[in-house]
Amino acid sequence: MSAEATSPGAHSRRRGIPRIDLRRLGRAALLGPASRDRLPDAIGHVADAHRAHHPDADLAVLRRAYVLAETSHRGQYRKSGEPYITHPLAVTLILAELGAETTTLTASLLHDTVEDTEVTLDQVRAEFGDEVCYLVDGVTKLEKVDYGAAAEPETFRKMLVATGNDVRVMSIKLADRLHNMRTLGVMRPEKQVRIAKVTRDVLIPLAERLGVQALKTELEDLVFAILHPEEYAYTRALIADNATAGDALAAISEDVRRVLREAGIGAEVLVRPRHFVSVHRSRHKRGELRGTDFGRLLVLVGEDADCYGVLGELHTCFTPVISEFKDFIAAPKFNLYQSLHTAVAGPDGAVAEVLIRTHQMHRVAEAGVVALGNPYASVDSPEAVGSAEPADSTEPQDGERADPTRPGWLSRLLEWQQAATDPDTFWTTLRDDLAQDREITVFRAEGGMLGLPAGATCVDAAYAQYGEAAHSCLGARVNGRLATLSTVLSDGDTVQLLLTHDAASGPSPEWLDHARTPAARIAITGWLAAHPEAVGTPDAAPRAPLAVTADRREAANAVVDLPGATVRLAGCCTPVPPDAVTGFLVRGGVVTVHREECPSVDRMRALDRAPTPVSWGDAPGCRVTLYAESFGRPRLLAELTEAIATAGAAIVSATVEPPSEQRVRHTYTLELPDAAGLPGLMRAMRDVPGVYDVSRAQHPATA
Hints:
Radius of gyration: 35 Å
Strand content: 15-25%
């Protein structure tokens, strides 16, 4: 398979699309003279592309970097037979067209010199400075001689750590992989498949997370062609057979232009064809495709407010498909992406998807972090000109960097990789982490936010907020309501995590079933390995019900006007003075006394059972049944019984049910010397760590 055959770009000439045509630029690097001694046209292409984004850029450093790269790579050839210098030139062209600043382009020209030539990092530093040296070092592979089979995962670990300090490292790596994927046809088929799988599992998710859609979409198509050649061929033929499909969108785009022109909104309306993988996904989602399914409309405006103005006009003058509306301007994606998404139906019923964004949003949507320029330069620096956001390296209260090049997912990745010392564990965990391609934001009850992958649970939130201190987490409140640690969180939830101060407490093996983030899984696994005695034994109460029974006193402090009748306080609601009560005569001359609000009272009255008046006697003592709901942890039963004894109550009986989802239910029948002490007793029980509710017994019981 030739490189051209693997490139999905040959299927169409897209008219009026503001998509960066990286394939054309990749070929442009080969347009220089055949002589290996000079390629002025190639470096000229880089200069032209760079000046288009940075008119005042100093090109002298690029020329010096090109001279060093060309001379150091002289005599080296790619497997395709081309001079090796064509590769760093093509990589640099990709980044130049995306709008990368001069330092990134300088490093991209030199990115293989230290790895493949006699040039050293010290030479690069002396000639081009520390920044360029850091970027070159970040993308330089580790030697297989030193690392063996671990060379690839450890190289990626090295690059990711370097990316944590300077995101431009990964920008260069992504452009490097894109050009290598374009020319992968000269490799053996098995090597093509291996490289394509790593690209699919690691590089494409990283491109998505960094917002570099122009690289991500082409990488997806190239991987699709190699790993799924039959489906790729079918999709390619489908697009070719529907070459006029854009006419349907073109007609709708004319109507949109007219509507916006009449509304006085200045906007550029473009037809944006879908790439191969997008068409393939749409076919599987919708079945047979219509003409409008092969592309989308892109509306570009000047200001944020104009985006909503366009949306209002479209929803007024066309029939909107409300289920397709998404607002990524008010709530941007975690990869910097901002846009309004909607869909409208034309007169013939054809549905057209519409993207609405400003020109600046579009630039960031295409180039992601590359569009930031140099995010670490001062605002007045020439390299910061054109940045999407002003540089901000302050440390917010939640510990994450404020600048968008160090998002939550990258911070979390850098944290958990430190604990994954084994290369295989790191490599497997990295792929699993990157497979979670959507992120949610949850709010902490005490202030601040947590960024978590979609599907994360309270376990993940605990370790994201507290690190290893989360071992003592008992449960959580989600949006003010008690929740188990297995509760899956949704975007925008408010989470309050409940911890115990017991240093002996720790996670149970079941927590691994609920952990989605690598940081949580690694921390839990590490704790369980260090505490083997805890494996297989729940942190909560015993599995079998525990019953403790003391001497029962049958006398009740209640009086009825029935001579010879025996009074018994109902176990279903355990009334105590001064509760409003009523009684019912049952077999054996026994009057059972219930609280007025007890469900059993309604049931007895429904059976036409006549109530018996009841009053409280003078004796201060009483008996009551209390339910305690808690999260399971060691020593919980001992602390609860101690709290009861300290309050002056005697335990008549106690039952502890088996734990369920880390929750434990305790039932206590207690003798109190004075009913007035009941509220204080219940407060004392609630104050025991892990106990989240104490209530009086109130459930139907047979009379």
